[in-house]
Amino acid sequence: ASCSAARSAGVRLCFGNILARIPSSYIMETVSSKVVDASADGFHSYDPGELKAFIEFINDSLKNDPDVSQHIPLKSEVDLATGSQDGVLLCKLINAVSRGTIDERAINKQRPLNVYKMDENLKLAINAAAAIGCRIVNISASSIRDGKLHLIMGLIWQVMRIYLLERVNIKSNPGIILLAEEGESAKDIMQLSAEKILVRWLRYELRKAGQEPKIKEINSEMKDLMVFSHVVSQLDKHFDKSVIEQDSVEKRAKALIESSERLKLKSFITEESLMEGNSKIYLMFTSQLFNCKDNGLELPEEKKIEVQKATITEESNAVGTKEERTFQLWINSLGLDGVYVNSFYPDLKDGLTILKLMNYVWPGSVVEGKYEKKPGSNKYKQIGNGNYAIAVGKDVKIRTAGLTGAGLADSNPTQVLGLPMYLSLIHICRCRRLLTCRSRWSPYH
After folding, report:
1. pLDDT in tens, 145-163
2. Which of 2, 141, 321, 412 could be stapled to 407 by a disulfide with Cβ–Cβ 3.0 to 4.6 Å?
3. How far out from the chain centre does Cα 88 lie?
């Protein structure tokens, strides 16, 4: 086994050395309609349709900005990689999506920029991206400056996603209350993630079109474009409904793009990209349709005011709203595998996220097999995970008095806020100690 491991390590080292000697002009090539980015750590593929959509989004967002005029309009993956290297374009893009996130005075704009100034800009962009909710995993200033396109595109997608989903909430669109299921209130709708709201909206429009709503998530299974065709037929009265009956995805894609132009959607998406079955492209298209002027969720003015008042009341009555947001950002900033909190209480009630946080702060404290990995909506399994999290808390000697598994599963604000509060305090204090001592001491031992 040791000989096999040694041989594998030797092959990886040899392969990395070979790739390092390949001239940059040969680094990218097209294989099976996928663009492949080769680097010393392996091959990374991405969809050309995604690339085109990202480039169009950047060009549209920054077309009037004089500080990036030398890069805009971008035309290819090479333009995107080189344009991102000094960090100015990324800083500007983040500010275009979330105004005021970065102080313009902090951006180094006087060109030519040396490596140190570039790194300052790139670190500024990466930190700002994390601040608005992006997951920054394996993304560093050097990786962007080296033109690692898969990482650059990963960051841009997250920024773009925040922009596209910004208005998918009940405060911006009071008509979302029409998507509530039986027994749900404005508070329940407020706790749904933007993706879940979009899925409910698609199902709502499908029912209006007389179709059985089978869709459960936005993914590649929508490749036949039937869902989009039925939905767009409700939004655009000039949509060619004959393509629904025809067995031609090409004709449906063409009709959808023509409708998107009539609905005045921004042209990030092409017919070809719609036919590729890319879930990111479908999320883009769905959010654009949802954000169009008439999305089928119109409410009478008095009803809008009523919903807005209910929303404000729920927010004012919420316990620890600022704390929830703080802990949510802290959890998402850690970049834990399979962990991303969209809605604080619903995403923590099954106990899995809390257990992963505990194992991150105290490696090895959570034992495999002692908790349910797929509790789903099973209340007993959720309570079991909560009780185990409390038991782990007692083992590592943090305060767990008054906490119960049932309280966590029921999303009791006082109890759910308790554990993340202790975990974040311990993590931050250890990190501060590490920085203060300037030693190689590990914050987790």
Report:
1. 998 888 899 999 999 999 9
2. 412
3. 22
Checking 358-363 for CB contacts under 8 A at 24+ apart, the result is: 358/389, 358/392, 358/393, 358/396, 358/419, 358/423, 360/334, 360/336, 360/427, 360/444, 361/423, 361/426, 361/427, 361/444, 362/392, 362/396, 362/444, 363/444
3-state DSSP call for residue 46?
strand
User: Average pLDDT, stretch 164-185?
Assistant: 83
**In Å, what is the CA distance from 386 to each residue of 324, 349, 363, 411?**
18, 8, 18, 11
* Alpha-carbon span 21 to 242, nearest angstrom: 55
Phi, psi (rounded to 5 degrees) for 136 = -105, 90
21-50 per-position pLDDT tens digit: 444 433 344 333 455 555 545 566 777 888
Q: What is the pLDDT of residues 317-332, one digit of tens each?
A: 444 467 777 888 788 8
What is the sign of the dihedral through the CA atoms of 89, 94, 99 and 103?
negative
For residue 42, which amino acid is it?
G
Positive or negative, the CA dihedral 357, 359, 365, 366 is positive
Q: How far apart are the first and last CA of the chain?
A: 31
DSSP readout, 375-388? Answer: -TT-HHHHHHHHHH
Helices and strands counted in the chain (H then E) = 21, 3
Higher pLDDT, 173 or 257: 257
DSSP character for 180?
A: P
* The two structure tokens encoding residue 90: 């990324």
